[in-house]
Amino acid sequence: MMVFAFMREEILEKAGELFFKIGYKSVTMDDIASEMGISKKTIYKFFKNKEVLIEESVNLMHEACHQVIDTITSQGHNPIKENFEIKKMFKEMFQNADTSPIYQLKKYYPKIYDRVMTKEMVVFHDCIKSNIERGIEQGFYRDNIDINNTVKFYFALVFYIHENMPMNEVQIIEIQALEYHTRAIATNKGIDELNKHLNN
């Protein structure tokens, strides 16, 4: 049973790596089997088709992202520094991707994309809402903002970037989006903290 679980996990990790680097559409089951030195039949023992493998690998990737975010948010950074630390983490995770994974899912596997986005909206909303609430408490953000609408605005902006921009532009534009979002809600104290991170 443990060998079974280990092989399944190995396939998921290798498939996720290839999907991430080359693209969900371009990578075939034959490519995955060849990279792992196993037969395609072995893959089908664990995953009935490519779509199932894609969705499970996407879920695995998002779980890993959320674990890293949880680690960062538990370190006690002020809310503005926390956002920059999360962006830094995503830059490192996505630096080997040729095209945006979100763009690929939306274009080629829209049903998987819709399910992923439904889950991401909940996680993103909770994460950004918590960040804003702490920012208000600590004096970095204004206390007269509409928190729920601010979260929706930022969510729409971030995911528009990932859905439509070339991957080599995403990281730069994301920092600009973070600056735009922060300046819209920051106090003078928050602006000072923002400028410190932008200058670094």
Automatic annotation (TrEMBL):
Domain of life of the native organism: Bacteria
InterPro entries with a match to the protein in the record: Homeodomain-like_sf, HTH-type_Tx_Regulator, HTH_TetR
SUPFAM superfamilies in the record: Homeodomain-like (SSF46689)
Keywords linked to the UniProt accession: DNA-binding
Native source organism of the sequence: Pseudofulvibacter geojedonensis
DNA-binding interval(s): 28-47
Protein name: TetR/AcrR family transcriptional regulator
Ranges of residues in domain HTH tetR-type: 5-65
